[in-house]
Amino acid sequence: MDNGLLDKIQQDLERALKERNLEIVRTLRFLLSAIHNLEIEKYPPEKGGVPSSGLPDEDVTAVIAKMAKTHRESIEAFKTGQRADLVKKEEEELSLLQKYLPEALSEEAIKKLVIEAKERGLNDFGQIMKDVMAKVKGKSDGSIVSKIVKEVLGG
Fold this sequence. Notes:
It contains seven helices and no strands. By secondary structure, it is mainly α. The model has no long low-confidence stretch (mean pLDDT 87).
């Protein structure tokens, strides 16, 4: 496994520093800090640390997806609170983070995965969610998958 995604983020940070783009610098530093925290949590130094091949892209993607979800939730909260200034800031940061995520699956593609899981004999909401989320890892938000599973099971 290479750490191509992590390398790309670090290169983008260096570029933003040279261009003195403080918004990008701040967002990427926050992202790299979250990735570093995951490294320590998942690969503690006393147990050998990060694999010699580097941090897997799937770990980096998981951190980015979690941060993107937090930004989406903040955007909704700030819209409710009528804080357009903070909505704009959060949307800009979310837009930057989304550049590092794999392209999101369409609702139609997710629905197909849900139907396939149901055809394999999974009828329980939790079982289908677990099955589908494992397949869409990093490519869809859990709330979207949940909505589609409810539609398919209820419909």
